[in-house]
Amino acid sequence: MTNDAPQDQQPQLHHHHHHQQEHQQDFKQKLEALYSQSKSWFDRQKQDLENLEAHQHDINQINLESIANVKANLQLTRSDVAFLRTNIRTLDEHIDDLRMLVDKNKQLSTIQIETVAQLKLERASLLAYQKTLHQRAEKLEADLAAMTLRIEALGRQLSRLKREVREHKEAPGHSTATTVAEEDRRAQEIQRILSTIHGYEAVHAYALERIPPPPPSSDLSQKPFQAQDQYRENSNLAAATSAPFDCRHYIDNSSGNNNSIRKHA
């Protein structure tokens, strides 16, 4: 048996070898294509990983900045809380002060209400007393008018007595004893009339001093404390003028002012 293949088997071997080369070439191409696809996929994955790492780095940086901002905001919040606590304590103190002021205002309002009520009562009393004073003033004015008429009548009587004394002195043939007795009688009469006139004048002056001027109605409403003082003063005046006035004291004391009536007569 020789090394040479049979002549009929060489074409088959050649065909098989060619077919094997084609198969290897096709496999090589497929392998290269698969490698190219794998390399492309790997490059894409690597790029995606790099992008993911960059994105994760950005996210981490943002998170770090957010954490820093949160810490800063937390510190600010703590400062705000401390400030608010201080303000709350201050407001509590102000509230306590306001409550004290409200209590004081309530007390003052109560005092003012009581004062207003008292002033209203005193005003009513003042108005009633003012009416009483006006009535007393009218009565005193009527009495003064009567005194004035009486003084005028006494003045006319005094003039008449002086004229009679003068005519009696000038009459011819009058007796000296009769003249002296008559002059004494007339002098006593004149002394009595003058004493009465001076007494009425003293009563008139005293009554004028005791008549208070009527206070305006506005003073009673606008000046209650002055009206209260005036009320006390008028009360003292009422105590002095309520009793009947005795003019004999003034009439008796005024009689000593006319010791020389006989000379004037």
Can you describe this structure?
This protein is mainly alpha-helical. Helix content is 87%, strand content 0%. It has helices at 10-170, 176-210, 217-222, 224-241, 248-254, 261-264. α1 (10-170) runs antiparallel to α2 (176-210), α1 (10-170) runs parallel beside α4 and α2 (176-210) packs across α5. The protein is rod-shaped. The chain starts with 9 loop residues before the first helix and ends with a helix.
Blueprint of the fold:
Elements: H1 10-170, H2 176-210, H3 217-222, H4 224-241, H5 248-254, H6 261-264
Helix pairs in contact: 1-2, 1-4, 2-5
**Structural class by secondary-structure content:** mainly alpha
The overall pLDDT average reads: 75
The SSE order reads HHHHHH
Overall outline = rod-shaped
The biggest beta sheet is recorded as: none
Number of strands: 0
Distance between the termini: 221 Å
Radius of gyration: 69 Å
Helix content: over 70%
Number of helical stretches of at least 4 residues? 6
List the main descriptive attributes of the protein structure presented here:
single chain, 265 residues, mainly alpha, rod-shaped, disordered C terminus, coiled coil
